[in-house]
Design goal:
Elements (H helix, E strand, L loop, with lengths): L9 E2 L7 H8 L18 H16 L2 E6 L5 E3 L4 H7 L8 H15 L1 E9 L2 E8 L4 E5 L5 E6 L5 E4 L4 E5 L11 H4 L1 H19 L6 E4 L6 H15 L15 E4 L4 H21 L14 H31 L8 E5 L2 H4 L3 H13 L5 H7 L25
Antiparallel strand pairs: 1-8, 2-3, 2-12, 4-5, 4-9, 6-7, 7-8, 10-11
Length: 395
């Protein structure tokens, strides 16, 4: 039975960041007067939307371990123990999609995500995610990183880097990952302040929807009755009731002012500002003001090439570095399948397949495999146009 205690070879008190120090650094008040940390940043719907877009996209893509063949082609290395860990489940209680979504979320919020590696006979057989705040990173005299785990009893133990799978967000610090939340905490704090202001205003009915005009001066008792009546009908959960006015009084509704419009514009600005930090297109977090049907597909392709692919490369290289032995890296490699994300509409796909088959780029069965369809007899031969010579059968 694999035990996490085996990962902690010695106990050592060291200077450097511990869990409390990291919390105090990340939970500083922002300019808006609201403390923002990686934990409470998810209370901001904009941050939650950005994180979920990236994490869910990474988690839904199949992650395959391949073996390089001598002829330059690749095949699935289903006989390697790491294949099932990456494709199916890293441990007995966590699925691969769940593991990758959780690791991606931790990396986006904290700058780092960690998982303990369980090995037997030199092969990885288990990955167990660790809370990011319980692990800190330091370097030895030679500049090689190692990890310090904060235990529940308050002790700290040193962990060799070979026993930890690490997903790091690159930044100016070569040792610690870049926390996007820490870098954007003022923008996130302002968005939370705007949300809180709107919630308090509407919960109390603080913004008057209009003014009541009376032809003469009202007595103090009449003013008190009128105020109580309006508050009971138009405050909080009672908002929307029918008001009855006496003694010739009239109601004049108020329109949105320039201040109201500035609030809306400022909130939209914060959506774009936070999405810019995570590099998520606005239409993917349901900000559709400037999105049209004609540019949505182009922006989706841009999300794959400029936002998602860099994260996938970080995953693939981290797997090679931490989970494959040095002698295995020339033969094995991990790769995400992104075909489902780059598929266009049905008519465009069929036209592309027809062109590829006609010009001897793909065989019919290769195109059918891309559509998850079973092969057909004779579908493994390349088809050449009638005015060219016959292409040899695909070996």
């Amino acid at each position: 039975m694999f035990s996490l205690a085996k990962l902690f070879p010695r106990l050592e008190k060291r200077s450097g960041f511990n869990e409390l120090e990291r919390f105090l650094l990340s939970a500083n008040n922002t300019s808006a007067g609201i403390a923002v940390s990686p934990e409470n940043a998810l209370r901001c719907p904009i941050v939650l939307g950005c994180v979920r877009v990236i994490a869910d996209s990474v988690s839904q893509l199949p992650l395959i371990l391949y073996r390089r063949r001598e002829n330059g082609e690749k095949e699935r290395a289903t006989d390697h123990p790491l294949y099932s860990l990456l494709h199916d489940s890293p441990n007995d209680w966590t699925g691969s999609a769940e593991f990758r979504a959780s690791m991606m979320t931790c990396a986006l919020l904290n700058g780092d995500a960690f998982a303990f590696i369980g090995r037997a006979n030199g092969r990885v057989f288990e990955l167990i995610q660790s809370p990011s705040r319980s692990i800190s990173v330091d370097v030895d005299d030679a500049g090689e990183p190692f990890f310090v785990a904060s235990m529940k009893n308050g002790n700290r133990r040193i962990i060799d880097r070979k026993d930890v799978f690490r997903l790091k967000v690159p930044g100016p610090d070569p040792v610690r990952g870049l926390s996007l939340v820490e870098q954007a905490k003022d923008s996130i704090g302002l968005a939370l302040a705007l949300e809180g202001y709107a919630s308090r205003m509407f919960s109390k009915g603080a913004r008057p929807s209009g003014v009541v005009k009376a032809p003469g001066k009202l007595t103090d008792s009449a003013v008190s009755r009128l105020r109580a009546s309006l508050q009971s009908l138009h405050s909080g959960g009672e908002s929307g009731g029918t008001a009855i006015f006496e003694e010739g009084m009239t109601f004049e509704p108020l329109q949105f002012t320039s201040v109201d419009m500035q609030y809306i514009e400022l909130f939209r600005h914060q959506i774009a500002q936070i999405a810019r930090v995570f590099r998520v297109p606005l239409h993917m977090i349901q900000e559709l003001e400037r999105t049209t049907h004609s540019n949505a597909e182009a922006m989706g392709q841009e999300f794959l090439s400029t936002v998602l692919l860099p994260w996938l490369k970080l995953w693939e290289q981290a797997i090679s570095r931490d989970l494959l032995e040095a002698e295995e890296r020339s033969e094995y490699f991990a790769e995400f399948l992104v075909d489902d994300l780059v598929k266009a509409d049905l008519a465009s796909r069929m036209a592309a397949y027809a062109t590829a088959i006609t010009n001897s780029i793909l065989t019919p069965n290769e195109c059918r495999a891309m559509e998850n369809r079973s092969p057909l007899p004779g579908g493994d031969d390349l088809r050449a146009p009638l005015n060219t010579s016959q292409v040899a059968a695909n070996g």
